[in-house]
């Protein structure tokens, strides 16, 4: 009677994970999931900010179709009445459940996380979420601050807990109910960390002594970076500890020692997250559902940790757009799993040694907008049709494409001879491309460059990533009729991945444009 789905989405998590080759991080539980999963090492979000990215992958449509580039409109009203991935599962007989931050809360999901369209019961939000931005971080002087870097004693927190701890407990409670009711489910669990503030239980700092931390490999603003491409990390400047540093706007570098602390706390928050994932997956084992539940693990976008002299998301660089993406499909990414087998024993990051390699890994460039059709196919549902060129009036379609055909294709396999090209333009033998975009209010960094409201958008940076290149054009954009003018390029970026993996040397102006 079909597989269940556990869909885990993490806020602002770039792939600093053991299974993605990071040598410093302690992420044994996510790595263990990867060891039973198909892992995509080149997966990209369609816009590096929370609400637009989430609405995009939950509807399977790009930001130019959802018309959400900020936080302030609900797609069903402003763009089209598009079905969502959970809605599609709900209409196909699944109990759909939302825990934590899945949709971005607020007007962009109708102040209801798109309930009742997407979910069978009202979504759960952890009560401790409302304290996220309060002064809960103890400074050296013993006073409380609203800091960016915020290791805490959980027992001193309001309610004696943190949001992600509450979300894990609720998700486990729901798994137990689903087990008892024998109800086919789609359970989405959205974790808050490592989103700022970097507020996590202080013991996770022990995993990352400061002397082990390094700066970004390229902590300077690249000489040929167009000013329109730079994001001035306004959100972290508003935190008390960053404010006290009095860093000049927009480029002023943060002091090295503070950069190391941010990186240390980001890693610590990732290990705290890994523990939550470990407890959740262990609970899936405990209720005996690991043999018939698909697990998807991803993030809404990445987060810059000082690369290019930038912090936070809000850009088109890989550090902001690249995300972890993996699919555990029992019997497909693993040999058949017997009922009640232990697939996900909990691993303690403080004592666990040794990594585990991903079960399968694809370097194919893929997009989050493809998760909806992929998950539909894996669950045995009809794959939503590919959207026509203009799809504002089409309720169910996807601008992504199912990537299930990458699951068992070995990397060397020539993709040419594949069937199934008849009905879509995007034949499998074309080189895959990921598109991302980011809006700006002006050609140079200003106070609202990171998060311009729709009415203030003047320029859109359209970016494409292939296995070999990242190519970005910054062009005029009219927010009244949602049109971009590619005849008037304000700035361009071109990075060659083979020689410039960190995207520091923009060769757009010295490339001969004939071959682009």
From TrEMBL:
> Domain Sulfatase N-terminal spans what residues?
4-380
Q: Where in the cell is it found?
A: Lysosome
Molecular-function GO term, any one: iduronate-2-sulfatase activity
Q: Which GO terms describe its cellular component?
A: lysosomal lumen
Q: Which Pfam families match?
A: Sulfatase
Q: Which CDD domains match?
A: iduronate-2-sulfatase
Task: Name the SUPFAM superfamilies for this protein.
Answer: Alkaline phosphatase-like
Its EC number(s):
3.1.6.13
Q: Which cofactor does it need?
A: Ca(2+)
Q: Kindly state which reaction or reactions the protein catalyses.
A: Hydrolysis of the 2-sulfate groups of the L-iduronate 2-sulfate units of dermatan sulfate, heparan sulfate and heparin
Record keywords:
Calcium, Disulfide bond, Glycoprotein, Hydrolase, Lysosome, Metal-binding, Signal, Zymogen
What is the first-listed, main subcellular location in coarse terms?
Answer: other
GO BP annotation list: carbohydrate derivative catabolic process
Q: How does it assemble?
A: Monomer. The 58-kDa mature form is composed of two chains resulting from proteolitic processing, the 42-kDa chain and the 14-kDa chain that remain stably associated and form the 58-kDa intermediate form which is enzymatically active.
Q: What is the purpose of this protein?
A: Lysosomal enzyme involved in the degradation pathway of dermatan sulfate and heparan sulfate.
Cross-referenced PANTHER family: IDURONATE 2-SULFATASE
Q: Which family does it belong to?
A: Belongs to the sulfatase family.
Protein name as catalogued: Iduronate 2-sulfatase
Natural source organism = Daphoenositta chrysoptera (varied sittella)
Phylogenetic placement of the source organism: Eukaryota, Metazoa, Chordata, Craniata, Vertebrata
Quote the gene name from the UniProt entry.
Ids
């Amino acid at each position: 009677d079909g597989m269940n789905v556990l869909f885990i989405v993490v806020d602002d998590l770039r792939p600093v994970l053991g299974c993605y080759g990071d040598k410093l991080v302690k992420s044994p539980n996510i790595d263990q999931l990867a060891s039973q999963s198909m892992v995509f090492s080149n997966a990209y979000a369609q816009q590096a900010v929370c609400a637009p990215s989430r609405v995009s992958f939950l509807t399977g449509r790009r930001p130019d179709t959802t018309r959400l580039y900020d936080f302030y409109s609900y797609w069903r009203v402003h763009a089209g009445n598009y079905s969502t991935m959970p809605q599609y599962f709900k209409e196909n007989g699944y109990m759909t459940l939302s825990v934590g931050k899945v949709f971005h809360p607020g007007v962009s999901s109708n102040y209801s996380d798109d309930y009742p369209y997407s979910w069978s019961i009202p979504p759960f939000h952890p009560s401790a979420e409302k304290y996220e931005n309060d002064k809960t971080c103890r400074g050296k002087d013993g006073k409380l601050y609203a800091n960016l870097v915020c290791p805490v004693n959980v027992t001193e927190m309001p309610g004696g807990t943190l949001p992600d701890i509450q979300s894990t407990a609720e998700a486990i409670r729901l798994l137990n109910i689903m087990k008892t009711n024998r109800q086919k489910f789609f359970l989405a669990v959205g974790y808050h960390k490592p989103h700022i503030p970097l507020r996590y239980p202080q013991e996770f700092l022990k995993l990352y002594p400061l002397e082990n931390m390094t700066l970004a490999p390229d902590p300077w603003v690249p000489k040929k970076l167009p000013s329109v491409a730079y994001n001035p990390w306004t959100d972290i400047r508003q935190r008390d500890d960053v404010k006290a540093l009095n860093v000049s706007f927009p480029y002023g570098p943060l002091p090295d020692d503070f950069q190391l602390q941010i990186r240390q706390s980001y890693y610590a928050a990732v290990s705290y997250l890994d523990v939550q994932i470990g407890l959740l997956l262990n609970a899936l084992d405990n209720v005996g559902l690991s043999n018939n539940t698909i697990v998807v693990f991803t993030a809404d976008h990445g987060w810059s940790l000082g690369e290019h002299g930038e912090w936070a998301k809000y850009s088109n660089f890989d550090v902001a757009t690249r995300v972890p993406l993996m699919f555990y499909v029992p019997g497909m990414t693993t040999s058949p799993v017997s009922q009640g087998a232990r697939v996900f024993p909990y691993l303690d990051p403080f004592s666990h040694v040794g990594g585990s390699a991903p079960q399968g890994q694809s370097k194919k460039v893929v997009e989050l907008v493809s998760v909806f059709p992929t998950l539909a196919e894996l669950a045995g549902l009809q794959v939503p049709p590919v959207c026509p060129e203009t799809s504002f009036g089409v309720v169910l379609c996807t601008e992504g494409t199912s990537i299930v055909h990458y699951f068992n294709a070995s990397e060397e396999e020539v993709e040419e001879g594949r069937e199934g090209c008849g009905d879509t333009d995007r034949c499998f033998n074309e080189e895959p491309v990921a598109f991302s975009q980011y809006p700006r209010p002006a050609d140079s960094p200003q106070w609202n460059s990171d998060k311009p409201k729709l009415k203030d958008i003047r320029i859109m940076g359209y970016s494409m990533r292939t296995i070999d290149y990242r190519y970005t054009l910054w062009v005029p954009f009219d927010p009244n009729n949602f049109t971009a003018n590619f005849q008037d390029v304000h700035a361009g970026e071109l990075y060659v991945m083979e020689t410039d993996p960190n995207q520091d040397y923009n060769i757009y102006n010295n490339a001969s444009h004939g071959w682009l």
